[in-house]
Amino acid sequence: MTDLSLLSGPIPLVVAATGAAGGVWLMTGRAGWFRRRAIPLCAAGAGVLTGCLWFWMERVWRPLPDPIPLTVYLWTALALWAVTMLVPRILIAPRRMWAAAVSVVAAAAVVAACAVQINLYFAAYPTVGAAMGFEHVTRIDFPEVPPPTPTPISGRPLESMWTPPADMPRAGKITSVNIPGDRSGFHARRAEIYLPPAYFTDPRPQFPVLVLLAGQPGQPKDWLTEPSRVSCTHCHLCATG
Questions:
Q1: What tens-digit pLDDT sequence spans the chain (241 residues)?
Q2: Is residue 51 within 8 Å of 74, Cβ to Cβ?
């Protein structure tokens, strides 16, 4: 389940269909005041809240270098409308607990559908596992990382100078550490460091260093949340492809 894609395949379609059904349920009501007042007032309230959010994001805070597209704000407004519709939708059936429960589920379905649509633009969470914070990696505390070796094996090609030992681990490990900006003064987030299986061998080969920077919105562990987002050439250093 954690490998199911949130960017393609059936999941976005199923969530969108469920959200549409939830929206229809939220607008269904026989009371006249519900149709004439509740629905338009909730829509107006959601629009005002979204406008305030737009002003804060684009004119005050500006956390991203580029403007957030209008479609993202429209999906946000729809999600806020679904949340505000909960109260009047429950009030029109005060004695029906099942109707109230269905209304809560319907609002949640609309919010989930809007979140999936926003995620389709940013592609921040490619899979269900990524959205839930699952990692396909093995972690190790930084103090437990083997220290640098004074004379690593080097050569071109490396295969002619170093052969992977039989006891080399089958997968690498991830550690995190603070890298202070002594010269820049920039207070960065904790860096995520990938150590390939060959790092844990003795003798150890000479490794290249790749510095990968996350985009905005993004965070360092985005490179590790879903391995299929980063591809490399199969070699003895990784031994896992």
A1: 888 999 999 999 999 999 999 999 999 988 889 999 999 999 999 999 999 999 999 999 998 888 999 999 999 999 999 999 999 999 987 778 899 999 999 999 999 999 999 999 988 888 998 888 887 779 999 999 999 888 899 888 888 889 999 999 999 999 999 999 999 998 888 999 999 999 999 889 998 899 988 877 788 888 876 544 443 433 444 443 3
A2: no
SS3 130: helix
Q: What residues contact 76, with CB distance under 8 A and at least 6 apart? A: 50, 53, 114, 118
Q: Which residues contact 227 (CB under 8 A, 6 or more apart)?
A: 136, 137
Residue 195 phi/psi, 5-degree rounding, is -115, 115
Tokens of 164: 């992977």
Q: Contacts from 10-17 at CB under 8 Å and sequence distance 24+?
A: 11/116, 11/128, 12/116, 12/117, 12/120, 15/109, 15/112, 15/113, 15/116, 16/113, 16/116, 16/117
227-238 in b/e form (b: 16+ CB < 10 A) is: eeeeeeeeeebe
Residues 241, 232: Cα–Cα separation, whole Å:
7
Cβ 153 vs Cβ 203: under 8 Å: yes
**3 state DSSP class of 10:** helix
Token pair of 85 as six digits: 């519709």
Rounded Cα distance between 84 and 117, Å, is 20
Q: How many whole angstroms separate alpha carbon 100 and alpha carbon 25? A: 11
| CA 185, chain centre distance (Å) | 28
Residue 60: partners with Cβ closer than 8 Å, 6 or more residues away: none
